[in-house]
Design brief:
The complex is a heterodimer of chains A (about 300) and B (about 290). Chain A has helices at about 15-40, 60-65, 70-105, 110-135, 140-150, 160-190, 195-200, 205-215, 220-235, 240-245, 255-260, 275-309. Chain A is mainly α and about 300 residues long. Chain A is globular and about 75 Å long. Chain A starts with 13 loop residues before the first helix and ends with a helix. Chain B folds into 2 domains: about 10-70; about 75-285, MetI-like fold (Orthogonal Bundle). Chain B has helices spanning about 10-50, 55-60, 70-80, 85-115, 120-130, 135-145, 155-160, 165-175, 180-185, 190-205, 205-220, 225-230, 240-250, 255-285. The chains are: A mainly alpha (about 300), B mainly alpha (about 290). Chains A and B meet through helix 1, helix 3, helix 4, helix 5 and helix 6 of A and helix 1, helix 4, helix 5, helix 6 and helix 9 of B.
Amino acid sequence: MNNYHFGRGWARLAPYLLLLPGFLFYLVIMLGPAIATGFYSFTDASGIQGAKVNWIGLENYREFLFMGQASRDNYAALVRTLIFCFFVTTIQFSLGLLLALLVNQRLRGVNIFRTIFFMPVILGAVIQGLIWSLFLYPLGGPLATILGLFGIRSEFLGGQPAEAMAWVIFVQIWANLGITMMIFIAGLQTIPGDLYESARIDGATGWQAFRNVTWPLLTPSVNTNLLLNIIGSLQAWQLFLVLIGYRNGTQVLGYLIFAQGFGQTSGSVTSAFRQGYAAAASIVLFFLVLVIGLPVQYFLQQRERRILG
Amino acid sequence: MSTLTTGETASPPTRRAAARRIAWARIGAYVLLSLFAIVYVGPLMMLVITSLKSMPEFMKSATALPTSLRFENFVEAWEKANFLRYLTNTLIYTVSATAIYVVTAVFVAFPISRGYVRGAGWLLTLYIIALFLPVALIPQFQLMLNLGLYNNPVGYVMLFLVNPIGIVILVNYIKTLPLELDEAAAMDGCGYLRFVTSIVFPLIQPAIATIAVLHAIGIWNELILPTIYLTNKDYYPITRGMIVFQGVYGSNWPTLAAAVLIMTLPMLVLFLVLQRYIVSGLTAGAVKG
């Protein structure tokens, strides 16, 4: 506080005043609305301009969690969200690590591979979705043709819900593997090379060097990746929208929030949306993120303290 | 990993065995990488092939190579959809929101990093917990609606003035600037505003480039927010325009593929030019943070 050198009195206010616009944006556009989601979950807000918003207590939660077929569908969506999160996190994490180890070697051309694997991140969900819709075109598309050679026929994204889900998981991993890989590469590059040198002199095999040097020293990027992957995949749903749309048996919580709050395809204000209900669903998802994210965060921090001191 | 250079201690036979092992490991690595690369490049190749075909050709065989190179699909896609308008809109949204975000973000990150404002630690925590926050879509929508900013380009741009990860990256980067810089500048009578604009900004350019690129990619590719907030076709960004185009030409894959390529090319070029900033930014923000 007393290390401020740029004047006293009124001049001392300069950093506060200049910080204000950016911080206000954060407050008004993100933090405030995020907190207000809790408030809206107790109302019957509809999203119609000028319509009265009534306080209805826990009604949205009662309906979401306990009322008839709809609540059973909601639980199914919740379970699906967890399944999606599990597969995306584990596979993306392992493959990301594998790719990072491969392209971090002194091999010719690794930069090209790196660029290729990161490319989908730049393209965004719309193009990712269209690219794979074409590749998975069931009427003689590339994959249909290849599988056809083995006598396998599949509808891919238009097939059974479980199969469609599996393909969305695949595309989700394909699309974001590059981020995981890059974070691992960044971590690998902080590991000093002489550690490997001494491990080699001590006669360590490749696996032993990985087990005792790479893996423990990679802890910061392991933590970052695990947390980003878990929370990211719990909240992800854009590829569901682009690849299969809002289809029974494939909804996840994030998509459910959007569909209830804003209609399934358009954002027209004329029809009433169930925004209070959607807010309640957002809070359910929020708790899911906390219930999984916080223990993982705690465990990772404990582990980091144990390993890196 | 200079594995081959320091083998003086090993006797010749073991050294040769080690070299052979390394050669095999190298081949294995290339094979694995190539397999992955096929999964990444293959779908793109399919897109290019399809965009050069006619619809009857595609119906006959979706995977066959085109018999002749025809670029009619690109002309058709360009003429049928209002892509010039959509691209212009996206460009305006991306540039204006990114510019405002970057400038305001530096003025947030610098005093937090230096401890020049009271409660700097708390402020940083507020930005870090953003990852865990509940989905803010509903109240955000109510706010914009009641401010009369629904279906309004200015309101739409306002949605993109925030990005907490960028703040964290900046704070970490600014920590690497020596404190003596501040002292010396103040001693010479340089004010706070001038110090940040004429000394800090140029010095943290790599971090600024990173957060600008990451933020711009997010805006450029955003699909959900335009779906929610923009109903007027004249305001559509390219992503929304593309989805509408897909709705109309969904079964005409050759034209659709051409449209996707039209939309993809600017991003690919930009990425190839700017990719080093993304890598360095992830290093600075994600791993050390």
